[in-house]
Amino acid sequence: MANITASVYTSHVPAIGVAIDQGRTQEPYWQPLFQGYEFSRMWMQDNTPDVIFLVYNDHATAFSLDIIPTFAIGCAAEFKPADEGWGPRPVPVVKGHPQLAAHIAQSVIQQDFDLTIVNRMEVDHGLTVPLSLMCGQPQQWPCAVIPFAVNVVQYPVPSGRRCFELGRAIRRAIESFDLPLKVQIWGTGGMSHQLQGARAGLINKEFDNLFLDKLIADPEAAAMIPHIDYVREAGSEGIELVMWLIARGAMSDVKSGSDVVGGQPPKVVHRFYHVPASNTAVGHLILENK
Ligand code: DHB
Ligand code: FE
Fold it and tell me: How far apart are alpha carbons 279 and 220 in whole angstroms?
């Protein structure tokens, strides 16, 4: 059986990708940020999974206002880095895992979640920046990646509670796949930031750190945070944090009925918080299942 070994949480600021691609990570502005991910890159080398189930949001790159899927699962064999206006990032093509992705689609849809099945898609900074932060600049990404796109751009967006429940369903799906794959689940985006309007530049360190505390120790409570609180407290783009709840809901301490039992709380192997990166507060966690 496949199983979830760990979950990783990280912001996805596009300027971080530019700093990596242009060799500027040791500049004074960026050095403290990248220092916070040094441990993570070593951890990733020692704990390379077979597959990353990567929860992220597309920023009107693959999807536009023409089609707005709430939850979309990438079932293709590969996903090319998108051109977001300055040419595609010079990073490897993302190799998918069509077999596991199709199984997860089947299982999660039968657990009553509506997923859009995507057989061709380019991936933007929401997916490639977290991979760069965790894996550096390899010739090939170290494992297969299943992109899972969540609409947090155009309202109505899914609630944190629904995202958490979806995480539980994804765990059931992964644990019912009959190849012995090691899978990590990543929740990306956040933390507090607002890119437009009168409050552009908003950062809320207190909210962010309380969110990290809650996500670690009381994820059920984190899942109950209503939309309006993210927007008020963490800014309009702070709503990206609901995606972290999908990853947290898939961890093995989260109980769900009789078939998904609650295990030990996860081990916090790394926690990092840094302001600023562009307009964004950067948060990062690595949680291992015991
Ligand atoms: C920034 C952050 C984001 O999450 C994003 O998608 C685009 C830009 C920023 O801080 O610049
Ligand atoms: Fe974003």
Answer: 29
Buried b (16+ CB within 10 A) or exposed e, 101-133: bebbbebbeeeebebeebeebbbbbbbbbbbbb
Quote the number of domains for the chain.
1
* Structural domain of 183: 3-288
Per-residue pLDDT tens over the stretch 30-39: 999 999 999 9
Q: Which residues of the chain have pLDDT under 50?
A: none
- Spacing, Cα 14 to ligand 1 middle (Å): 6
List the structure tokens of 90. Answer: 């010079």
Residue 257, pLDDT score = 60
Instruction: Measure the N-to-C terminal CA separation of the chain; round to a whole number of Å.
Output: 17
Q: Is the distance from the beta carbon of residue 184 to the nearest atom of ligand 1 less than 6 Å? A: no
Residue 33: CATH number of its domain: 3.40.830.10
DSSP classification of residue 240: G
Give the integer Cα–Cα distance in Å for 223 and 170: 16
* The predicted structure's pLDDT at residue 262: 74
CA distance 147 to 150: 10
pTM of the model: 0.97
- Report the C-alpha gap between 18 and 287 in whole angstroms: 27
Ligand 1 pocket check for 14: Cβ under 6 Å:
yes
